[in-house]
Amino acid sequence: MELRYILEVLWRRRWLAINIFGAIFLTIVIGTLLITPSYDSTAKVLLRKSTASSSALASIGLSGGSSQTSSTLADADRADYLALVTMRPVAERVISELNVKRLRTRARLMNAIPGLKPVLRLLGVNVDATEEVMTAEGMLDASILNTIFPRPCVSVEQYEETDIIEIETTSPDPEQAKEIANSMAKIFIDEELKRVKEDYAGVK
């Protein structure tokens, strides 16, 4: 009796059930069409504290002690390096050298929804501008939108409890993700070498 009553209720409300199922199904289909796969790539950089000044001064007897020439990093040093990697000039050099671009949201929608392009054109939207050059702020800001609409993005963190920093890049293009991660690491190393040379020059 119970089963028959339940079936009668479901039959009376079949159109409601069909509409709910259709809405859920349509949402899943549209979501699947809009979701773009995202690829990760990482580059690791080993950090060593510059001992240019202390080593040069120790060699002429003005300072001594192995602790002064240690390359071990303190927590403050690691924090400084993490900040240096994510500074705007480094990201801007990467964007300039690799010509990093992102696909506009309107382009994703036009690719996913047939017939949307002429509608947007009638509304005065520039449907030909499908890409735009990334900004340093956009590439270094890992917002929730990056999960929904993947774009080139960089995050930097300390690797476990070591003096290694890990540069992680996400992008809809696996090759682009790899190039950005490697380029971020290379440019950071170049900038650090330049700073160490300036330290030596200052000591001289």
In which order are the strands of the major sheet placed?
Answer: 1-5-4
The helix/strand class is alpha+beta
Work out the radius of gyration: 27 Å
The total of beta strands comes to 5
What letter string, H or E per element, gives the SSE order? HHEHHHEHHEHHEEH
* Contiguous helical run count: 10
Report the average pLDDT across residues. 79
Give the termini separation: 97 Å
State the major sheet.
3 strands, antiparallel
The fraction of residues assigned to DSSP E strands is 5-15%
Q: Sum up the overall morphology in one term.
A: elongated
List low-pLDDT spans: 64-69
How do the strands and helices of this protein lay out in sequence?
Elements: H1 2-12, H2 14-34, E1 39-46, H3 52-59, H4 75-85, H5 88-98, E2 101-103, H6 105-112, H7 116-122, E3 131-133, H8 136-140, H9 145-148, E4 153-158, E5 164-171, H10 174-203
Antiparallel strand pairs: 1-5, 2-3, 4-5
Helix pairs in contact: 3-10, 5-10
How does this model look, in words?
The longest helix is centred in the C-terminal third of the chain and has 30 residues, at 174-203. It is built from ten helices and five strands. Helix 3 packs parallel to helix 10 (174-203) and helix 5 crosses helix 10. With 204 residues, the protein is an alpha+beta fold. A hairpin with a 5-residue loop joins strand 4 and strand 5 (164-171). The radius of gyration is 27 Å and the shape is elongated. Strands 1-5-4 form a three-stranded antiparallel β-sheet. The chain has a two-stranded antiparallel sheet with strand order 2-3. The termini are far apart. It has helices at residues 2-12, 14-34, 52-59, 75-85, 88-98, 105-112, 116-122, 136-140, 145-148, 174-203; strands spanning 39-46, 101-103, 131-133, 153-158, 164-171.
